[in-house]
Amino acid sequence: MAGFACQLLSLLCILGALQLVRGYSFRNCMEHKKGQVFNCYNRKEENMTAIIDDLPSTAVNLSINTNHVPRILNNTFTRLPNLLLLSLDHNQIRDIEQLAFHNLTHLKSLNLSFNLISALSPSVFHDLGNLTFLSLARNKLKELPGDIFSTLVSLSNLIIRENFLRNFTGIAKSISDLQNLRKLDLCQNHLTSLSHFNVSLPKSLNALYVCYNSLSTLGNHSSLLKPIQLLDLSHNPRLSTEAFHGVDLEGVNYLRLQSTGVNIFEFLNISNIYAGHVDFSNTSLNGSSEVIKLCNILQKKLPKIKNLDLSHNGFQIGKNSPILNNCPEIKEALNVSHNQIKIINCLDFLKNQTQVQVLNVEHNHITILPPCDEAVRLPNLLEVTFRYNHILSIKSFAFKNTPNLKILKLNINIISFLDQKALKGLNGLETLRLDNNLLTTLTKNTFEDLISLQTLNLRNNRISVIFSETFFHLGNLTILDLGGNKITHFQQSGLNGLRRLAKFYLDGNKLKMIDPSFYHIFQDTLTVLDLQNNQINLLSEKIVVPPFMNLTKLSDLKLGGQQPHGLAFLPTFLFQGLHSLRSLYLTDNKISLFGYNVFDDLTDLNFLSLDSCCVGVMQLQPGIFKNLKNLTTLMIENTGMQNFSKEVFGSLTKLQKLQLDHNVMQQIDVEALQSLPNLQYLDMRRVPLSCTCENSMLKNWTENNQDVYVVYLYNMQCPGDAKTKFYKFDTSVCYIDLGEYMFVGTTLVVFLFTFTPLFYVKLYWKFKYSYYVFRSWFSEQWRRLREEEENCKYDAFISYNSSDEMWVMDQLLPNLEGKGSSFKLCLHHRDFEPGRYILDNIVSAVYSSRKTVCVVSRNFLSSEWCSLEIQMASYRLFDEHRDVLLLVLLEPLSDRQLSSYHRMRKVMLKKTYLQWPGTECVDPTQSQELFWNQLRRAIGTGSRTERKGDDTSAHTRGSQHSETHKSDESCYLLP
């Protein structure tokens, strides 16, 4: 019993394991975090309820966008009571019923922007007491019900920009009870005034955006904007200076007046706002004289200013220009971007502003940065950006006067000449951006003084060669970006000096080989290496040493997109030594062969991308991923893969995300999926899975499941039949009463194994006899024997074993054929026809004799042919109802010895049998004589019996028994 229990437990464990991993999907949404985050994008459903009807109640973040859902019905989201973020933008929504958001009591963010909503029910947001963010931007709202937001007691951010609102009083009334409201965005409406009669704005409101409206007046009392700290009035061309008369702006700490009709000089004279809180960008300061005028006014109002924004004004700065001389002292940032500046003359316009820390000169027309070794020093300047200019060249000592720069941005220009001494003196520089220029050459002196540099970006230039010791002095550099150039090779010692390099980007160049000698300088520090989109082809190079062997800390390696023919081959030792690698990208290559052990050293790999990596059909050898025990994400889209087998993928026991999109396999083995116990995400879109019995288990696996998310399962079509979906193709023909058939088949097998030995022992001769009788039934001889039955050739056929032949010849033959007896006996050694089959001789002897006398002994019972002879005779006795069988026992036999011969026992129970008197009899001679007389009389009686004569026969047997018993019961037995 203990063994059976163990086997049963093992079976249950196996069945449980088979159910460990199952698949599930959603009809219209993609899951991004199990049971919590969903995105329903660009679906064909027009009913919002239909889109989300199969989502779980555990969802907390739901985005439904870019659909055509004209109406949201009552109780649409009742099934999702745990939602915290709900985005319904870009859905062409026109109408929202008043109970549409019923039961969303936990919702914190609701986005209804970019729809066609023209009106809202007063109670539509009634249940959203925990809402903190609400966006109604880009709709067609003309007015708001007075108490529409009354229940949104937690609302802090309200965006209603890009609508058709005109009445600010109505808006103020709708938000008056929102005591937690901090930001209100009303930009791009049709507001003409901020007047709000008999209504006060919430005291918590500190940011008000009313840009791009038609404001001409601000309000009717001074306390209108008292709680506001950030006020955006930009792009209201009708707004004039007069609108600010009597308006209290003392609490405002940031004011935007761009593109308005406000005269900035008059405004500063009449307003009580702190001048340092005004954004002066795009305030029509078209000439340097107007900037000087502004500075004079500011100088009178405040001695210092934290930030000064003069962008988008269109002024120029000439040589030795006093433009900022009279301005208050700028403590932090100066922005002069988006102007007409062409010459900066070593920033001499800052000679009286030496405290500036951040300078923005983007989007101007500067063409050259001249030498500045004798210019005014600006020791406090930490960051300068010259992006989006037309800088062509940078001369020597261009930044000599700014020795403490930390960040220098020269990117997105047309720099083709960078003097070897252009960056001299920048010992403290940490970040240098030179990307997106026209640089072709770098020398060992270019970065000589940049000993503190940590990030160097040279992407998208025209550099073709890295000369020796170019980066020799950059001992603290951690990020080097050389991507998007034309680099074909590195000269010897070209990368020397990069002792702390952690991230190295070489993608988009023309490298043709991977030389391990390049990386020996930073082999103990490098974590990211990007070699994508080069010209590396591993078939064309003889790689003797594993190229990444010594990069012991490398965690991210990109080798995708090699041009023009891809990597072609992945040698077995290619990734040898990369025990710390976490991410590997091999996308967009044309690999025809993978080395069997190519991934063996990547024991810490978490992410592997093989998207579009192969040419033709991808052939992955079994066990190729055997050591990737920590892999969690595998991307193998568009690889031409024809099968998904357990032998290849079965070792990925920690895999969570599997991308199989756009492959050519027609079936997926469920057993292979079951071998991935941690799988959570499966994408097999655009895979031509056949809707046949080969995929019946896969279809059932995806039908009722809870563990693995299958992306858009319900959109997958059967190949050649666009009307039939994979998830519901008919599998009934594959499982017709399978359980019943398995039960019946198992029962038959158990029955055969149990009873076949028993049948063999008990019924072997019965079957064998029946077979021979059936075969003989149709023979001519059989019919002839039956016809001549009444005119038998012999009186008795003697069946005996050869070991008893002496008794037969000495005793039986003389007493039956001699001593006055006229019986003719059939003996096999004397009367069987020579050359004839033994079986035919036996059948002939039985049916040619009126009686069959079986001389039974222990030897007789063990004889196969004797057993067949008694079977023949007993058949005539029981089945043909002919009294033809006589039993003579030569020796006493116990019940145990006869137990195996049920046919003989049956004869002995129904017929008289004789036993040869032994020497133990009182009078052996008399007993033997009586034995022979009884035997002669039995042979002499007829063989025909009546079918209903059982009583008569019994009587006869009983009489015989009485008669014989009088003689000596112990010498012969007549039951």
TrEMBL record:
Pfam families: LRR_8 (PF13855), TIR (PF01582). One of its GO terms (biological process) is innate immune response. The chain crosses the membrane at residues 741-761. It is found in: Membrane. InterPro entries: Leu-rich_rpt, Leu-rich_rpt_typical-subtyp, LRR_dom_sf, TIR_dom, Toll_tir_struct_dom_sf. The keyword Repeat applies. Residues 944-969 have a biased composition (Basic and acidic residues). Residues 792-939 form the TIR domain. It is a single-pass type I membrane protein. Gene3D superfamilies: Ribonuclease Inhibitor, Toll/interleukin-1 receptor homology (TIR) domain. It comes from the Eukaryota. One of its GO terms (cellular component) is plasma membrane. Residues 941-975 are annotated as: Disordered. GO terms for molecular function: signaling receptor activity. Keywords: Glycoprotein, Immunity, Inflammatory response, Innate immunity, Leucine-rich repeat, Membrane, Receptor, Repeat, Signal, Transmembrane, Transmembrane helix. Residues 1-23 form the signal peptide. Belongs to the Toll-like receptor family. This is Toll-like receptor 21.
